[in-house]
Amino acid sequence: MANSRDGSRLRDCALEHPVRGPLGSSRREFLVRSLAGISLLGAGPLWSGCHDGGSSGSAPTRSNLAALALEAPDANGLQLSEGFRSRVVARSGERPVAASAYVWHAAPDGGATFASDDGGWIYVSNAELASGGVGALSFAPDGSLRDAYSILSGTIRNCAGGATPWGTWLSCEEFAGGRVHECDPYGREPAVVRPELGVFQHEAVAVDPVTHFFYLTEDVPDGRLYRFVPVGRRGDGRPEYAGGSLEVAQVIGSPGGRVVWHPLPDPSGSPTPTRLQVAASTRFAGGEGIDVRDGIVYFSTKHDNRVWALDTRSDELSVLYDAASFAVPVLTGVDNVVVSPWGDVLVAEDGGNLEIVALTPGGDVNPVVRIANHPLSEVTGPAFDPSGTRLYFSSQRGAAGRSNAGITYEVEGPFGI
Length: 417
Fold this sequence. Notes:
Layout: H1 7-16, H2 27-41, E1 78-79, E2 85-91, E3 108-115, E4 121-127, E5 134-139, E6 145-152, E7 158-163, E8 169-173, E9 180-183, E10 192-193, E11 202-207, E12 214-218, E13 225-229, E14 245-252, E15 257-263, E16 287-293, E17 296-301, E18 306-311, E19 316-322, E20 334-339, E21 345-349, E22 355-359, E23 365-371, E24 379-384, E25 390-395, E26 407-412
Antiparallel strand pairs: 1-23, 2-26, 3-4, 4-5, 5-6, 7-8, 8-9, 9-10, 11-12, 12-13, 13-14, 14-15, 15-19, 16-17, 17-18, 18-19, 20-21, 21-22, 22-23, 24-25, 25-26
């Protein structure tokens, strides 16, 4: 078992070495109860990172990710399961679409997809560079790439972010004075800075589609978990930012427990950084990706290799995955997070085996794709298209290990059944 990468065998390891959480359950019991329950609670197909709109087909209804077994690398250097195929949709420094002058950015990072009115979709991708920015790829209903363009420029180190229920992209700057910029995926409207969401070293953000509460991670070793509560909604259904409250989490219990939210005295972080303004707030070891589905917020922390689950209805926080609880962990270097249409929590690795790993509704921890021979890179920006049959992501620095060698992929196949 020491060399096994098979999800079921590592699941057995978890049974042999259960980790007790705040609910008194083993890791497998928690996974089964939480993920299966969340999947059953869904009222219909939910496309992570997508707003309501056209779809290129009907999304499958159940996860297939626990059954996947990776094969040898394909022509694009990806290890996939039988029935899956890949293509490169963009390379840093090159024009993805011959008819467009837009050159794909270096260091592609966080991303999301948005359904177009005509049945196509858009994939947006941050540039984690000093020059920052966000690029977009537009796909026709048949999956062909039809346009590429910029939707944000003049920013710094755009790392991850999050899609909103009203169809915009929140791009986060990862430096001490970082802010959140709200972007139009079509690039028709200028991006808007949202200072109400705080000034700090942002990583990612997720918006609950029911409450319109924002949940934000901070990528420093003693980062915090934040929540922004709007004062209400405008006539078009979007949140009213002005007058809203940015709050920071205090966790009562360890490693999980009940969350208490404290208003921040000064979201601008000047002169006191936001994470230091409330003495009772809880440190998280390097906040990374975050996503939300059916009232559960999932986020990762890289310095302790954990994935967390926050039930927004009860404010109970639990450790969903802890690499330290496995003799041979499948998932390490936890980073970007996206929830599949069927409730799988997909986590991209920064390090590890350079995989996207699924924590499935059945309790498995199983690789979905592995990028071969990119030892100095990381996997970034996982997002499904509206049909749930295509997964987009990037190797941020490619095989060469340089920011200008990034590659953005599409993998198509039976992710669900």
